[in-house]
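Q: Could you fold this chain for me?
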Amino acid sequence: MAELQLDLGRRMSCDSAVLVGDWVYIRSDGVADLADASDPTKMPAVGFVSQKQGVDLAFVKSSGLYRRSPESWTPGTELYISETQPGRLRIGTPPTGTVQKAGDVDPDGITVIVNIDLTPEIDVSVVAGGEVIRSYAPGVLLRDVVYLRTDGVVDRASAASPVTIAGRGVVSSIDDPSPGLCKVLLSGDLTGFVGLSIGKTYIAGVAAGSIIAEDDILNPNYPDQTPSSGHVRAEIGEAAAADKLQVGTQRDYDIF
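A: Sure. Below is the predicted structure, expressed as structure tokens.
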């Protein structure tokens, strides 16, 4: 479970090998561990460790300023999660694996302005239009919000479970291009919805695979914003029409 602690970041359990300054992902058991762009089961990164509390508790930030002595870079350089050094950053996009930007180097050459992309593109079967092809779990339906499990299969995401939210997308077609596979839209327009309110932002709901308007706070499907609830407020997209959702590439993500 994670909780917000002022500007230190989210307090969560971590692997004992994780150090201050490491970039981490959330394992299926909810524990923060070293992110590795070469292994899709260890991505996406959700932020960096700003402070540790003992050996197995860490504060993780996904925004702000990052420094790790004695590292230095060329001002203005874009930094990404490394595919060769787990928990570290690299200059430019990795040649293989998951492409996830972490931030930009400040003019001082040692500070990184963190602007982490929480919906990175995983290097498997990318098709046109911001979609990827995945095997899907039983129960996954068209227009469900999904995440990538550690076995490489997509399953329905829930705002009640942070490990199901990072790297989320929306199912745009089922049994396409062949039975057992689906296309997942990471960015772009998806039609077929009913009753969306034009201009409103939609977030992941508590019910698996669902979305809900971000201002519909009295709905029982709305994530619990009580501190330490463990629920997530994760933006999915904006309604362009009553039946059309614009799935966004840059989306807010907060763990309560």
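A (continued): The two ends are 9 Å apart (CA to CA).
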